[in-house]
Amino acid sequence: MLPIRTAAFVALLFATASNVPADERLSAEARALQSGGYAYGASALLPGETSPLKMDCSNTVRYLVQRTRGILLPRTASEQYTYARRYGQIKRAVGLFGGTRPSSWWAKRLKAGDLLFWEHTYKPTRQPPVTHVMVYLGRDENGIPLMLGAQNSRGVGIYQLQPQAVYGGHGGFLGLLRKKGKLVAYGRLP
Known about the structure:
It is built from five helices and ten strands; from the N terminus they run H-H-E-E-H-H-E-H-E-E-E-E-E-E-E. By secondary structure, the chain is an alpha+beta fold. It has one domain (6-188): endopeptidase domain like (from Nostoc punctiforme) (endopeptidase fold (from Nostoc punctiforme), Alpha-Beta Complex), CATH 3.90.1720. A six-stranded antiparallel β-sheet has the order 3-10-4-5-6-7. A two-stranded antiparallel ribbon has the order 1-2. Strand 8 (169-170) and strand 9 form a beta hairpin. Helix 1 runs antiparallel to helix 2 (22-35) and helix 2 (22-35) runs antiparallel to helix 3 (57-69). The N and C termini lie far apart (33 Å). The relative contact order is 0.18.
C-alpha cells in the first residue's frame, strides 16, 4: 500500500472544495491520482476509503467519479458500461467496417468527465465484452486530449487519448483473426 504524497493530499483537498468548478475538481483529482505513483493492480488506501482499492482501470475510474461526481459506479468496466447505458448515455463509436472513428469525431463530442470504453483488450468472459475504461479529462493547453486511468504496463496516470490506437487484444490462429482491443464507446453519466 502506498502512502499519499503531500502534493497529492493538497490537490485532493482542493478537489473536494464545493466552490471549485467540476472540471477543475476533475483535473485536480486526476493529477493527485497520477502523483501517487500507483502501479497497475497495486493496493492503495486512498482518501475517503475505509479499505485499500486495487488500482486497476475500473477501480481508478470508480474512485475518480465518486470523488468528483458523488456517483458510486459498479466494479468492472463492463458493469460501468451497463450503468452508463441504463442511467446516462452511451454513444457507440464504431465506424465503417467496425473500425474506430477518427480523432476529429471524438473531439466534437467528448466532454470532461465522459467515460471511455474499450472492448477486447483481453479475452472477455462477460457481456458486453467491454474490458477497459478511462475518464476523459479534456484538452491540455496545447489542445492534446487527455484521459485518466490505469494501464497494465504504466500504472495509474494521465495519458493522451489516441482513439485509433490498439490496446491489447486476444485470440487468433497463427496471427489470423486476432481481435484487437479498441475504443468503442463513450458514456455520459447523469
